[in-house]
Amino acid sequence: MALLQTTTCLRISILLFFLIFLLPKEAYCIRIPNRIAESSTNPSTHQSLKTAVFSLGCFWRSEAVFGCLDGVFRTTVGYAGGSKLNPEYRSLGDHAESVRVEYDPKVTSFRKLLEVFWSSHDSRQVFGQGPDVGNQYRSIIFTNDTEESRLAAVSKEKEQLKSRGSAVTTQIQELGAFYPAEAEHQKFELKRNPFFLQLMGNLPEEELEMSTLAAKMNGYAADLCPPKIQKQIDAKINDIIKKGWPILREK
Fold first, then answer.
1. May I ask which residue range the UniProt record assigns to the signal sequence (predicted)?
2. Which residues are known to be catalytic?
3. Which of 3, 110, 219, 250 qualifies as a FRET site for 227, CA 20 to 30 Å off?
4. pLDDT in tens, 9-52
């Protein structure tokens, strides 16, 4: 019993440590059932958050790209841009692998997310990204309203001006249904590192999917955080390791 209590206390201490030093001052959690189409009009119970959805190749990496940005509260991989009902990883139909980003517009903006979108993939590649070939890996900016459509179009024009020799293939389309992907695809880069999961207290799957901390650590695990944030997390983890947390040692 004493060992169990010690384990629980250590996990709570670790979670508090991360919440205090790595996360924004506020964090909110929602739970989303699997395999249910979701509209962009009600992405979160916290009304001040906004939602953006992008397709830029394999969604494992795409989620990690956005997860570490300041102002991003949650990320979710899924399927969008097609007509098939209830798509699945092995049966996507005409959907594209996508990432949904829930963010605080007081901290970051749709314009900033667009900058990250363009810098994180090859928008001129046709029918895939890198070694990933297929229609599901196409480049798309999904928009929620007229202003986002305008910003997307302007950003695409600027991207095209960088190189007139090849056409930007990115599509801009209104966001319809977004289908969250299966659990095994959420926070994929983070799950490849059991040590990081242990540092977070081995959260249950549903909490991990919706966790702000998990979104940030997913980007960190993929080495895709901005350098400043990457170094901050490095320092915190090294401090935990020096103190012997969260490893329990036999006495």
1. 1-29
2. 58
3. 110
4. 444 444 444 443 444 433 332 223 333 344 443 444 466 999 99
